[in-house]
Amino acid sequence: MEDAARMWMITAKEGDPVAERELAIFYLTHPELLPRIMLPLTMPRDTFKAEMMYRRIEDPARSDPQTMCVAIHWMELSANGGDKLAK
To answer: Residue 78: its pLDDT value, please?
Structure first.
């Protein structure tokens, strides 16, 4: 699984919409296997939105706000890149 995560990170950074979607799903299902990364040259304020960061969460171990922001970041990039499943 760690090798798959590493490959999704590499191809997502290169701009592949399917890899971006799969990386977002990976963040939601196995966040412990990969570091939080963003598309190069992305401003942190564009990814880590205040409304997500300070939201009250019932189970913080399951839905960490930073991980959720990164997953949304990659899913939005995938949708903007034309991936129909990400929309």
So the answer is: 96
For tokens 């997953």, the residue is 71
Cα Rg for the chain, rounded, in angstroms? 12
Residue type, position 15, single letter: G
CA 31, CA 85: separation in Å to the nearest integer?
21
Tokens linked to 6: 């590493």
**Residue 34 DSSP symbol:** S
Summarize pLDDT for 33-84 with one digit per residue, the tens: 889 999 888 888 888 877 766 666 666 656 788 888 999 999 999 999 999 9
Under a CB-based contact definition with an 8 Å cutoff, are residues 79 and 86 in contact?
yes
Cβ–Cβ < 8 Å for 48, 54 = no
CA distances from 69 to 3, 14, 41, 45 (A): 23, 20, 16, 10
